Amino acid sequence: MKVSPADVAKIPASNLRVSRAEFVALWQAAEQFHDEQLRRGVPDWYGAGVVETCRWLAIVEPKTEQWRLAPSPVTRRLQVAYDDLIEAECHAAEQLAGSRPLPARLQGRPGWIEAVVATLNWAWRRHGRPPLDTNRFAWG
Question: What pLDDT is stored for residue 12 in this prediction?
Fold first, then answer.
């Protein structure tokens, strides 16, 4: 998916605790990286986790299908992301990441929950680094 100026304009400022520019750079990099991996036939659960989380925080509107909210990555809630719900999703992601034995839904998705936790921690809690290196990607 290409992140459009309209997508960027619709991102609620209250859903981010990093700058919009930093978030958009990450989101664009994640979409590009994930698309490239899929084109090559490389499973990319880490990239999928970053993409899903960014789309949910940004309240993205899919362009190729009937409109529906992007579900929250862990709890799969079909609600618009807002502060209390984002914090609840952070807690749910951390709990799922620490579950042992590994839940069945994660066994075939290596890196996915780590990506969700890293994205939420960075974008919402301002903790840690961006989950992908945005300098690796050229826009042009």
Answer: 96
